[in-house]
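Could you help me review a protein record that somebody else here produced? Here is the record exactly as it was handed to me:
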Amino acid sequence: MKGIYEPPDMIKAIVEGRKTQTRRLHGLKEINRHPDEWHLPVKQADDEGRWWFSSLTYEQTIVVKPRFHVGEVVFRQEAWADYCPIWFGYWCGHGTKEGIIKDHRPVYKSDPEKEQERPINAKGDMSIPVKWKSPMMMPEWAARDHLRIKDVRAERLQEITPEDCIAEGIGRYTFARGCLSENPPDKRWKFIELWDSINKKQKWDLNPWTFRYVFEQVK
């Protein structure tokens, strides 16, 4: 099963059901070298879930298959640690010759710190720091959320609507940064800031092609 990563500030939005869309650049590197040179003659995938891009300059076609397809279930990746509260100060995976493992489960960095349990050593000390692991190294067994892909669409980034931004988990808008008006010039500004903070090489102004995934949580 494939994993999908979301930034820490988006995890809560997914858990609360406020985030049901995500946009990704997977498989579109070649297209996004010159995004303005490509278009979609047919704005839907073929029977195999592939998208056919045609060049506006040359007689060239590139076929791209999204990383995820409709109906697929994926697990959500996040920063985590393999937590083992134990007796006699023994860490999980370091042997139990003179200690007894009481429990074994992952903990998550995005949780409030007061909920992040710590291993307890023989002296009752809970100060041992948690060594967080990269989200990209999270296996499926450690995931606490699974998502089902409901829809996939190829589109330019700037095609996103204010309603789509809300579905991306951004939240409704009040006023723009540095602007006293409740009607900022572009109501998508929060999404734009988030996108640019994550995608350093394919920022908003470049208007790259993306795959828009619509998903739902799987209990």
Notes: Residues 80-133 form one domain. The first helix runs from residue 8 to 15. Helices lie at 8-15, 162-167, 189-198. The two ends are 16 Å apart (CA to CA).
